[in-house]
Fold Metal-dependent carboxypeptidase.
Amino acid sequence: MTKATEEKFMALLKEEASYGEAIGLMAWDMRTKAPKKGMDNRSEVLGVLAQKVHEIQTSDEMKSYIDELKGNTQDPVIQKSLQEAEETYNKTAKIPTSEYRAYVTLQSKAESMWGEAKENNDFESFRPYLEKLVEYNRKFADYWGYENHRYDALLNNYEPGMTVEILDQVFPKVRKALTNLLEAIKNAPNQPDPSVLEGHFPKEQQEKFSYEILERMGYDFEAGRLDETVHPFAIGLNHNDVRVTTKYDERDFRTAVFGTIHEGGHALYEQNIDPKLSFTPLATGTSMGIHESQSLFWENFISRSEAFWENHYQLFQSYAPDKFNDISLDEFYRAINEVKPSLIRIEADELTYCLHIMVRYELEKALIGGEIEVKDLPELWNSKMEDYLGVKPSNDSEGVLQDIHWSGGDFGYFPSYALGYMYAAQFENKMREDLDIESIIRQGDFEQIKKWLTNHIHQYGKMKKPLEILNEVTGEGLNADYLINYLTNKYKNIYQY
Amino acid sequence: MTKATEEKFMALLKEEASYGEAIGLMAWDMRTKAPKKGMDNRSEVLGVLAQKVHEIQTSDEMKSYIDELKGNTQDPVIQKSLQEAEETYNKTAKIPTSEYRAYVTLQSKAESMWGEAKENNDFESFRPYLEKLVEYNRKFADYWGYENHRYDALLNNYEPGMTVEILDQVFPKVRKALTNLLEAIKNAPNQPDPSVLEGHFPKEQQEKFSYEILERMGYDFEAGRLDETVHPFAIGLNHNDVRVTTKYDERDFRTAVFGTIHEGGHALYEQNIDPKLSFTPLATGTSMGIHESQSLFWENFISRSEAFWENHYQLFQSYAPDKFNDISLDEFYRAINEVKPSLIRIEADELTYCLHIMVRYELEKALIGGEIEVKDLPELWNSKMEDYLGVKPSNDSEGVLQDIHWSGGDFGYFPSYALGYMYAAQFENKMREDLDIESIIRQGDFEQIKKWLTNHIHQYGKMKKPLEILNEVTGEGLNADYLINYLTNKYKNIYQY
């Protein structure tokens, strides 16, 4: 009896995952290849399939399998799949259908209003939408429930197990360390010269280098591909079809080089998930934070390291404009690691990035907690930017309106980025005990690193929760010290303060 | 009451069409971009979605809407959609579910067995599969019913309204005319010299020319795109997303040039279907034959015409290798129109192509009718090829095994190709009354031609049946005289016999 139910449950999950792959392909297509006139039609098709997924997740059929199988199955994949299915069921079932529909409509409207507001630097036109989005998210958090802070319920969507309590212990410490570092760097005697990186770098050459680096990272091109897009992303349709996208800026090669490696890190995660998890909700990265730890590990700990460029600068030069023949490895390495507080998160360097996240975390936590209101955001944003980064937006487009996240109701997402940095540093510290990372990087054969990441992290997909992985791999919980030490050593060496 | 049912009916059709668009995109992706390792997973996803479409088409819900709305709705789009839905429902409902499933499994197995058999030139290994496919198709035809010939029931799947009776009046006449023409040509004094077309033509240049020609045809690149593939096709995901694929052979530009124009003809049809048919089963070409008439009209009547090259040869030369500067327009025009009986259908010229179809038509008609059996096919194939084309396969790979169609159970499909030629000639003859085609082609602005085709054919999608369109546009039924006249005049001029 249970056996038959297990099969029916897995068949239903397969149906859900199949829609998921179709939706994923359509999304990839819309952001890379699809002709623009077909977008309206495509959006409707996406809507139909998303609705189907939602129906399955909240169906009586799903509920009956969960009830029947819970505690009655031995297979660990089915057990974990049940757990995921139940969490999704409960989360969705707690929201009244009429509210859910109204919210979906609001999301898409708000996103397009945000686009206009950003373009016109007009926060007021977006404010009523953002207010409604906040209101819904407060309500949803209350439906879902939480122990200490309402914001925990939202955090949980992106980083299961993470809480305000943990973040409030860690983030202020990071903030303090980073602002101190920033101060030291500002007054340091040995400033890098980023102008050495300027110059026209043809797209075709950047593309070739991107392919070469992805190959070296161990990205499997027979199970993926690289395409161009406006806002780069990686997407796993299934573990054998994980696509990377990148953007080529002919005036600044860093966009493509570090962007490709970043997305390549995400892609390696998805490519190396255990195939036995296919067609279950477990066949993807376990959380936003752990995912980001993989992309940032490759982007920062590997590809912004001195060892990496000792090995790869020559290769880079072979694709780069001739001027780079006259730029020394040291000049190059220091230039790509320049620290410079700026207004825009996605352009931030490795050090100041987390400070951007702190600003957002504090604001959205207070917003969801009801301590502040949407109307207070622009001013608070600007003053926090000044406090933490020493820069102040001259308008809301380069301030509170810069990110798309809130317009889609994605509150609780931002902390994942900072968590990714910390996790990456924690993993790297642990990896150091098993591998001589620098010498591996210098040799340019990343196989051992890829294997380590697969063994410790990738293969599990969602079989383990993020903090479970962190604890099992590093023997401790969230700890910012590793990131702080890493950044301190790195920048001391570069800036020689 | 009816209003509400109409809405529910249209919503169900929209769901079906949405799966259709997702399936279409996945198919396009698999044939152009998808990494090979992801294929297995993708096939399963396709299976899930195809099953969903099948479930909708045969659902009690669908049946109830058909019963309730039939004769009770004023909206012509709903009326025609009902008719389509009913035909599909009946067709599918008449096949017992267990047989349908077994057949689907057989199809996919047979297709892969065919691939191996073709590669190994081993008809015997494929024979048992083909026998089962024939058996199923005979049974299905009996389930579906027919008036005169069992084969009519299968023809109807691809060319509604077409019958053995009509084909048997027309095809022999065509065959006789073409074999006579072929004889005359063989002995004609003025043979073209195809060697003038030889030489290395870089892919990038062929690609640029392909884009340019599609633009000129009026293909809308904002509602489509051009990609490379192994077996070229065009696919309409929706009327604003109709994609063309082509193949570049650097040793023979004709593959890409005429292939792109051919697929472009299909694409123009799909791009110009009335948008009000979107998300219904009517939003596609009305039949295989009419679709083929559009691709062949552009490929043959336009792009293999003297007028076309009078205008476009200079453009062609600007992309082509330098050697073409020394080849006269006349030499070029005659060379691209060389007639040469060959063994392989897809490589056939404009004149002999229909003879390849006759061979297949006669064999599958007899096969479905039970007059011959699968074991008789290789020998019959070879002797008919010799009779009609004067060439004889030296093995089954270049004979009876060459086409994929039968391995997928597609009996009744082949005649559409020959019908496409005849329809195209009939349409062209009619168009001539309204437009000065040669002078339009010479001017190179095809807008009027595109408009004529849209007004008379494209816009209707499946609102009209193929023979309905043929009759309304030309005032008569299938008539091979126009094709025969066109070919006779064309080749008399070229070969001067």
Q: What stands out?
A: Chain B has two domains: 1-93, 110-497. Chain B touches chain A at residues 14-15, 17-19, 21-22, 25-26, 29, 33-38, 40-42, 44-45, 48-49, 52, 220-225, 237-241, 278-279 (CB under 8 Å).
